[in-house]
Amino acid sequence: xxxxxxxxxLSLVYxxxxxxxxxxxxxxxxxxxxxxxxxxxxxxxxxxxxxxVVAVGTKAAVLKDWQGxxxxxxxxxxxxxxxxxxxxxxxxxxxxxxxxLWVNLSNFTLPYDTTxxxxxxxxxxxxxxxxxxxxxxFGVDPSRTSPFMAELNADILDKVxxxxxxxxxxxxGHIAYVNHKAIEIAGLTDQTPNPPGGxxxxxxxxxxxxxxxxxxxSYLPFMAKIPTPxxxxxxxxLQKTTKSMAATxxxxxxxxxxxxxxxxDQEVALYKALTANEGxxxxxxxxxxxxxxxxxxxxxxxxxxxxxxRFIGVKFISDGSTxxxxxxxxxxxxxxxxxxxxxxxxxxxEDLFGLIKPYFDxxxxxxxxxxxxxxxxxxxxxxxxxxxGNPRPETRRLRIEHFTINTPEEVKKAxxxxxxxxxxxxxxDYWGEAFHNHLIGPKRSNRIDPAAEFKKQGSRFTLxxxxxxxxxxxxxxxxxxxxxxxxxxxxxxxxxxxxxTVDDAIRAVTINAAYQLMSDxxxxxxxxxxxxxxxxxxxxxxxxxxxxxxxxQVRETWIDGKWQAR
Length: 566
Description:
By secondary structure, the protein is α/β, with parallel strands linked by helices. The protein is 31% helix and 21% strand. The chain folds into three domains: 2-78, Urease, subunit C, domain 1, CATH 2.30.40; 86-90 and 229-559, Alpha-Beta Barrel (TIM Barrel), CATH 3.20.20; 102-223, Diaminopimelate Epimerase, Chain A, domain 1, CATH 3.10.310.
């Protein structure tokens, strides 16, 4: 009898374990659930347990197998559940600075600013500058300023102040403007040579510094003098920004320039401090900024980190900004009329190869910013050398950022090499009219961000904001990729042949982006075994008019099966 009792008790224990195993923490039902799996299936219910998806399917089957006494039932009430968005290219530290510490001059609405309104906005913030501090700002964009291409310089910024040093970063991030006080403090003179790595201290016809800086290496003398925010200030700004990103449905984002602002070791430490105890509202993937890495750098190893924070790549910049007229093209810009300037490469071929090869050999994923077709061609040539003899290029998932001005041959070569482009799709919306009518002309502008071409050839592509270059919010990217409408009235479609379907655009900001970030085994779709990163939308993007998708509201964001407080 005693033995029988023991057997019965043991059986009950095993039953309890089995029951606990099949009792989900939460079950979602009552609305369309977009899995974004290989078949793009919609299902009726989804169960999560211990932060992972454990079941997807019909409501009856999921409830039968996974509903327990403690299971929380989440009725979607007709709203849509889908995977959390994966933002493959942002600059999180810089975005946090522009949103929380600098004067944000970005203007993505109409009408455009003028240099006079910019001066007024900067003057209004002078009283916030502490003694010995600098007035810093971001978001000036001549191609979105009235009159067209009106630009800041030291003389104009002197109208704001001749005593307070001023540093203003262009919307592209590839150009900056300073006043004469800043030039003085940085120790520059008219005789100072340009720095290596593509930087330019712009001078006028008489050889005098104008206050315009081109490419990040030219910023360094100023960065060395600008007081660094405290860690507490930076952490607070980063928490605010990652929370704001989560509110747009982003559950994972990739910082493409770790070290560009404060130095690599400092930013790596900052991210570790931020993500300790889940201090960030999103997962973070980091690419170290190649130009900031000292020779022999090895203090961070490839794939170091965990599911919340992982460093996976190294990024280099081969050219500048298309709207900033610094991207390297094969044919000249058409602005100003009669121009023969086609932009500059930041590196010679051999120099670029010498930079990327050691990190590739260490196992890092390599990413190269290439906006112009000449830069894209250079990057592809170097990638072909890296991959020579490699029978499985997809294992390295080499990236080209932006891939803006391109040729059909470059698309074919990228596909052959397994290179994954990530498009700043806001180029079409915010700068489409300027590209088409003023900067590069119809033929080249109709080919920017060739998403449909990559899709047709069976290759992946992703969409991103490059924030703070354009506003983050993946629902906007989906709408922009599907409609390709430019903003300035009268609105027109830029490159109709490059439009993609809603499903293609959704995949570009979910599973394709997860693949690009080496994380598709864990995130990017709602499938059994993956992390429960998901969002609830008030409408189904698959059934919403494409031009209205950007207006869909993100109601809730969940990471690891936990709701992220707003």
